[in-house]
Write a structure and sequence with these properties.
The complex is a heterodimer of chains A (115) and B (112). Chain A has strands spanning 4-7, 10-13, 19-25, 31-37, 43-51, 54-57, 64-66, 76-78, 87-94, 105-106, 110-114. Chain A has 115 residues and is mainly beta. The N and C termini of chain A lie far apart (36 Å). Chain B contains no helices and 11 strands. Chain B is globular, with a radius of gyration of 13 Å. In chain B, the strands form 2 sheets. In chain B, strands 2, 4, 5, 9, 10 and 11 form a 6-stranded mixed β-sheet that branches. In chain B, strands 1-3-8-7-6 form a 5-stranded antiparallel β-sheet, with no helix packed on it. Classes of the chains: A mainly beta (115), B mainly beta (112). The interface between A and B is medium-sized, with 29 and 22 residues.
Chain lengths: 115, 112
């Protein structure tokens, strides 16, 4: 199993550009998440999904959009990139947050710079 | 209050020493408290977790102490090793979807 994979690893965007961060998991997990990590600020939940076709906002959804057409994929769309979206983005998946240890499995991250 | 307060922000410990990281919360609806470990350039990974009806959970050199009345919990790393150098995040689970609220993280450096 590859686990959770994210592409690209690094990206530089100009202000106003758009892009999609890709996330794929091969563990057949229903739950998927997007977080952003800023220095000294921990992980903030952007969006999450509890299954294909179902998404919901997290703590910091403004400026982002998601879709979940399959169990495996959970892309994050940035429209009109702003410097405030400079961050490291992590995708995660979980079989069930209330089962076993409720573990979330994280991808390796995408480092995004908006200039 | 949907937040978890974590301290210290950074910690330097000598090899063989004990590392202690503290977290506090206000929301009594939180029902599960995991700790995640993150190495540079990697995503976080679950290290150890505890339920609020348990006062202590030990896995190897890692122990969580939980004080429900004080709404505080802490991670203790015994016999700290240079390989433990990483950023540690406490978290709390809440809501019907089981989402996590993360603390701001503690960067641990273990000196040889």
């Amino acid at each position: 199993n590859a686990g959770v994979t994210q592409t690209p690893k690094f990206r530089i965007l100009k202000i106003g550009q758009s892009m999609t961060l890709q996330c794929t998991q091969d563990m057949n997990h229903n739950y998927m998440y997007w977080y952003r990590q800023d220095p000294g600020m921990g992980l903030k939940l952007i969006y999450y999904s509890v299954g294909a076709g179902i998404t919901d906002k997290g703590e910091v959804p403004n400026g982002y959009n998601v879709s979940r057409s399959t169990t495996e994929d959970f892309p994050l769309r940035l429209e009109l990139a702003a410097p405030s979206q400079t961050s490291v983005y992590f995708c995660a998946s979980s079989p069930d947050p209330y089962r076993d240890r409720g573990e979330q499995y994280f991808g390796p991250g995408t480092r995004l710079t908006v200039t | 209050q949907q937040q978890v307060k974590q301290s210290p922000q950074s910690l330097i410990v000598q090899k063989g020493g004990i590392s202690i990281i503290n977290c506090a919360y206000e929301n009594t609806a939180f029902d599960y408290f995991p700790w995640y470990q993150q190495f540079p350039g990697k995503g976080p990974a679950l290290l150890i977790a505890i339920r609020p009806d348990v006062s202590e959970k030990k896995e190897g050199r890692f122990t969580i102490s939980f004080n429900k009345s004080a709404k505080q919990f802490s991670l203790h790393i015994m016999d700290s090793q240079p390989g433990d150098s990483a950023t540690y995040f406490c978290a709390a689970r809440w809501g019907s979807q089981g989402n996590l609220i993360f603390g701001k993280g503690t960067k641990l450096s273990v000196k040889p």
